[in-house]
Amino acid sequence: MNINYPIKKQKNLNKTNYANRGMSLEKELNESNKYYRAHNIALIYKKPTPVQIVKVDYPKRQKAVIKEAYFQAPSTTDYNGIYRRKYIDFEAKEIKSKTAFPLQNIHIHQFEHLKQVLELGGITFIIVKFANLNKSFLLDGSITIELYDNYLNNGKKSISLKTFIEKGYEITDKCIYTLDYLKTVDKVYFDND
Amino acid sequence: MNINYPIKKQKNLNKTNYANRGMSLEKELNESNKYYRAHNIALIYKKPTPVQIVKVDYPKRQKAVIKEAYFQAPSTTDYNGIYRRKYIDFEAKEIKSKTAFPLQNIHIHQFEHLKQVLELGGITFIIVKFANLNKSFLLDGSITIELYDNYLNNGKKSISLKTFIEKGYEITDKCIYTLDYLKTVDKVYFDND
Questions:
Q1: Which one, A35, A42, A91, A110, has least CB within 10 Å?
Q2: pTM confidence score
Q3: In what order do the strands lie in the sheet with A169-170?
Q4: Exposure string for A24-60, b = 16+ CB within 10 A, e = fewer
Q5: Mutation site, B49, B57, B70, B120, interface A, largest A CB count within 10 A
Q6: To the nearest 10°, the Cα dihedral for B108, B111, B115, B121?
Q7: Measured between beta carbons, which residues in chain B are less than 8 angstroms from residue A51?
Q8: A171: number of Cβ within 10 Å
């Protein structure tokens, strides 16, 4: 844990650096979600990036080419779906820091969204991957909201690794070769079933 | 009902034709969903259209322009979210026909998706608006799946208006000025609560 390799120096020596060890979190989650769908365990999708389309060309019949478009800020979290008859909704972020997750990574709209999902009885959390430690954590939505609320009121700007270890859950299970995060969800949200 | 105005002729005389009476279904649902969110009733969003991005320019800092992208076929339905602690998932289609809804309007992936949501315990349905009749119906997912299954096996290629009237539910309530489809959901899925 907390191995302080001289990453930058190494980069020059060798194209493989420890940040790239393993897949990106997004890819891992997409693979896990594919696995869950294929095995009828859950239906969870990453929402497409919202894009504002300005100009479209039709060079050939049936093949539209978007020629001008802009990325839009997401108003919700990236992932949602159904698991064990429950609505599930979460945000996933990969960071380079080995010590803390900066809360500015979560948009205010996403924070508001998480709050509303919680109020309506859904399961919410964030998954944060510390890429350089190759460790991923699930942190419950209500804790995330509490810390974000505090951040908006001039409190701590980030969530420390320590907090993830103490209040979150490391996702250690794998489905085939990617993160089996629903095993962690089982532990956190369905333990009394 | 079934007023056979000579629509095309009228178009030339007056820019307002009866097909455009009222909003498009998508706009109606977006307004309803905004209303539900604002009143903490439900969190239901239309998923962004999936777009495959090929080329992005960065003319100015922080303002990326997508220069080449393509529309992708949706693998899921357009709408999902949470209502009364339940996962809710549906597809919405507006048609010009006054007599039947062609089932080819639903992609096979969307059909598979609806089936899986049902198996996992979610609420599924389709909303079909007969624009020229200015009537919208909710048809339960299991009925839709049955009819689609039949269509895939060389059965009927469309769902008749009669079937919508007999087996579906017309959405008659309004929230302010748009379709209050969750009132219909209440009747269909929560009547015993």
A1: A35
A2: 0.82
A3: A42-46, A79-83, A86-95, A123-130, A135-140, A169-170
A4: ebeebbbbbbebbbeeebbbbbebbebbebeeeeeee
A5: B120
A6: 140
A7: 48-49, 51, 53, 66, 69
A8: 22
Maximal C-alpha separation, chain B? 58
> pLDDT per position in chain A (193 positions), as tens?
333 333 333 333 333 333 335 689 999 999 999 999 999 999 999 988 888 999 999 877 668 899 999 988 888 999 999 999 999 999 999 999 999 999 999 999 999 999 999 999 999 999 999 999 999 999 999 999 999 999 999 999 999 999 999 999 999 888 777 788 888 888 888 876 5
Residue B69 touches partner A, C-beta closer than 8 Å: yes
Q: Between A and B, how many residue pairs show a Cβ–Cβ distance under 8 A?
A: 104
Torsion angle defined by CA atoms of residues B165, B173, B190 and A114, in that order, rounded to the nearest 10 degrees: 130
Selecting from A47, A83, A85 the residue whose C-beta is nearest the C-beta of B48 gives A47
**Encoding tokens for residue B179?**
């379709």
Q: What is the DSSP string of B11-59?
A: HHH-S--GGGSS--HHHHHHHHHHHHHHTTSEEEEEPPPPEEEEEEEEE
Matching residue, tokens 């919700």: A76
Give CA–CA dist A114/A118, Å, rounded: 6
pLDDT digits (tens, 9 = 90+) for B102-121: 999 999 999 999 999 999 99
Tokens of B74: 């949706």
